[in-house]
Amino acid sequence: MKLVKSLILGSAAALVAVGGAQAADLPVKAKAVEYVKVCSLYGPGFYYIPGTDTCIKLGGYLRMDMVVNANSVAGPNYNGPGGANNRFTNGYTWRSREDLNIDTRTATEYGVVRTYFDAVFTWTTDNYAVNGAAPGSTIYSALGGGGTVAPASAPNNAGAGNGSYGTVGVYFAFIQFAGFTMGKAISQFSAPWTNYPGNNFDGLVGGGGTVTGVNQFTYTAQFGNGVSLALSAQDQTQYFQAGVNNLSAGGAYGASDYAGTISPDFVAALKIDQAWGVFQASVAAHDNHAAYYGSTELTGHPDDKWGWAGQLALSIKNIPTGPGDTINVQGVYTDGATRYNIQDLASQAGAIAIYSGSSLPGAYGSVGFGTAPDTVFVAGGQQQTVKTWGMRGAYTHNWDPYWNTSIYGAYAGIMYNDTAKTLICGVGGAVGGTFRAAFAGGAGVTNCNPDYNIGQIGIITRWTPVKNLTFSADVTYTMLDQKYAGTITTSAGAIGKPSATYQLKDQDTVMLLLRAQRNW
C-alpha cells in the first residue's frame, strides 16, 4: 500500500508541474499600473490614494529640546525637585521627538469629509524624580500630598515615571464632516495660537491651551467673510480639572476630591478671521462634581458648583514695523474654572512651592506658595469657587527672511473668596485655618492669605537658515507674588530640605529652552 500511495502522489505532483509550465507559456495581459496622482483640491502636499477619490497628506517634524535649569521640558522649576533649588534640581533636561500626522480628505455631496491624526514619539532623559512617589514627611503632606519614602536615588531614565525614556502620545484624532468636529482636537475655547502667542515655552498662564487636543463634539457655523460660530461639548477630565479640594482631608489646601464624570464642559466661540488679523470671543461652562465628605456615602457630599470662563483674543497682522510682524494678545477671567487660565501645560503654576535662601535671622531658607484649584470646601459645607484673571501676549518682528525675535509675557491673579480664606487661614487670617494647622499652628505666620499672582516674561530668537529648519533660543523669567508673610516651621520642605524654619516670601526662577526643529 505504501508503494501504491507513493506512485499516486508522485503522479499528481508531475501533472501539477506540467500544467503550471503550460500555463506559464500562455500570453497574459499585463495589469494596468496605478500611478500616484497629485491632488490639488486642498493645497500642496496632497495625493490621491490609488484607486480612490480620497486625498492624503503626510507631515510632521523632528525636534530636539534642551531645557537649562528645569526638571521638566514643559515648565520652569515651580515645585518638587525643581522648586527645591538644591542638588536634586536638574541643570538641564533633554528631549527628542518625532511627530507624524496624517490628513485625509474626500469630496462628497455634503461637503468635504476629513480625518486627521497626529502622534508623537518622544525620548526624554535627565529628568530627576522621586521614584514615582511623593516624598513623605514633607511639605507635600502639609499641602495635601502623601506617601512616605526616602529621597530618590535614581533619575527617571533609570526607571521612574513622569514620561522619561521612550513614550508614544496621541495629540489629535478627529473627523470633520458637514460642519461637525468629532474626536480629539484643540479646544474651541483656545486662541488661534493656543499657548504660543510668540514663544516656544509651553507653560504660559493667561488663557486656555490644549495644544495636544481634547475629546469634543463640535458644530461650527460659517457665516461668510471669515465669521464663524463654534458650539462645543468637550471632555473636562483630562485637561480642565484643577481640583475640588476637600479641606477636611488634611493639609494646608486639603486634597482634591472628585466624583465620577457627570457633565462635559460646554464652549461657545465667535471668530472673525480677515486679512487684518483675527478676533475671537469664547466662553465655557464647567461643572465641579465633588465626591463625599468622608470615605462612604453616609458622610454626605456638597452640591455641584458650576464654574465659567470668558476670553477675548486679538491678532493683528501686517503691522508697519515689517512684513510678517504680528501682535497677539488675549485676556481671560474664570470663576470655578481655573484651567481656562492656568492651562494644562502651565499646571505647575497652580501648585507652586519654590525655595531659596533667606537673610532673616533664624531662618534656614525661604519658600513661596501658590495653589489654584477650582473650588474648596469642608465637611458639611458647600464648594467655594476660586476666581482668576489673566492675560498673555507677544510681539514678533522679522529682521529678514532668516531671523525673527519675539518678546512675550503673561500674568495671572488667583483670588479666594472670604469664606475660603477663613477656612484656610482662620478668622481674619490670624487664628486657626488649615494652613496654620498644617504648620504646627503657624505661630510665625504674620499674614495668611492664599491669594497670589504669577508673572512671566521672555524673549525668543529664531534662525531659519533653510526652509523648514529652525534653531531657536527661548529665555523665560517667572516671578511669584505670594501673599503670605512671616515664617513657618515644617519637616523637610522638599527633597533634601531639613526640618527647619522657613521665611515666607516671593520667589523667582529663570529657564532657557534651546530647540532645533525640522518640519516636513
TrEMBL record:
Taxonomic superkingdom: Bacteria
Pfam assignment, any one: Porin_2
GO biological process: monoatomic ion transport
Function description: Forms passive diffusion pores that allow small molecular weight hydrophilic materials across the outer membrane.
Extent of the signal sequence: 1-23
Xref: InterPro entries: Porin_alphabac
TM region(s), chain numbering: none
GO annotation, cellular component aspect: cell outer membrane; pore complex
Name of this chain's protein: Porin
Domain comment in the entry: Consists of 16-stranded beta-barrel sheets, with large surface-exposed loops, that form a transmembrane pore at the center of each barrel. The pore is partially ocluded by a peptide loop that folds into the pore lumen.
Protein family (similarity comment): Belongs to the alphaproteobacteria porin family.
Topological category with respect to the lipid bilayer: Multi-pass membrane protein
Keyword Transmembrane set for record: yes
An annotated Gene Ontology molecular function: porin activity
Keywords assigned: Cell outer membrane, Ion transport, Membrane, Porin, Signal, Transmembrane, Transmembrane beta strand, Transport
Record's subcellular location: Cell outer membrane
